Amino acid sequence: MSEEQDNEMDKKNDESKNLAVKDACIRLLPNCAEDVDVIVSPTEFGCNQATFKASVSGSGDYFVRLLNEGWISRIENGPYISPSSLVQYTQAVGEAGLGPAVLASDEQAMIQEWVEDMVPVLDNFELIVNDVGYAVAIGALLGRMHQLPVYADKAIRVVPIGYTPWEFDKVLPRLCEQDQDLENVWTEFNALRTRPPLAGNLGSRLVLVHGDFHWLNVLMTQSKEERSRPKFYIIDLELCRIGIAVEDIAWFFSEVQMNHRRPEYPALDFRDGFARGYLQACGLGDEKRLVNELLFAVEYERPWMVMLRMSTWGGQRKTLKKECAPEGVFAMSRQLLAAVQAGNQSLKHKILEQGIIEYARAMI
User: Global pTM?
Assistant: First the structure.
């Protein structure tokens, strides 16, 4: 397909989505008749390009999520929850004051309040990552979500967006037949997948996890007043389910490097502040011992998170094979973490300071 054809298809898709947003406003908003002007513009948030700002003449602005667009409509029996569950979880988050309130919904769209001047925290990355106060606030935001009542009776291991374990399990053995080097990937995949959660660690608690908690799915308000602190909001709950608490934290710390090419893992001061805010919001205390245990659980989870993300990128396959070699970063990470569990406190301090992936790479 030529670039011109691609552009034409994108244009048609945009027009179709704009029409769907206008139709949703007419269906769901009592003050929006067919003859009312609705100006639709895409957001720069997460949500797989399925969220829009709808400015309804005489009524105001709304945050519209299409439920029949993007990943959520295309993957059956995958990690993505049903549209009705997405609405349910979004309502729970909104009612708790953690996200924009849900105003109306049906099986095709969800309309939420539009919060003025809200932008993804990624837009202010340098400001956020160098301010412990912001780290505490975002950690508290996630902690409050993890305190919400759960709506399921089955615990499911949550994984980053774009990864379906059943698909990986089917595809990788066939790839191994074609490429012997991928046997190492399969070995590391199983070694990481079968590790039990850290027994007794606060990060191993079963909670209502977000499932894709990253820097485009956390929004912040940009206040015009100099000394005013922003408010933070959670969006995009299509991977929300029951899982272990630390998975959301590990992904938030790691995703910004992998998806947005930030050169360094967040500094320990930022991660420490995030953990303190999180523990305080959960009512678990914030003494240094608990903070360190939670941050160690993050590092314990990170090799699994990073490997899964790399496995979804075809262009990263060569790097993935290298990292999964017997002397690669994943095997080294497992060895180092096992040594800490065996009682090596000095090594634990180094891992907390640098991050497990970063320290393992330095050791190879």
Answer: 0.88
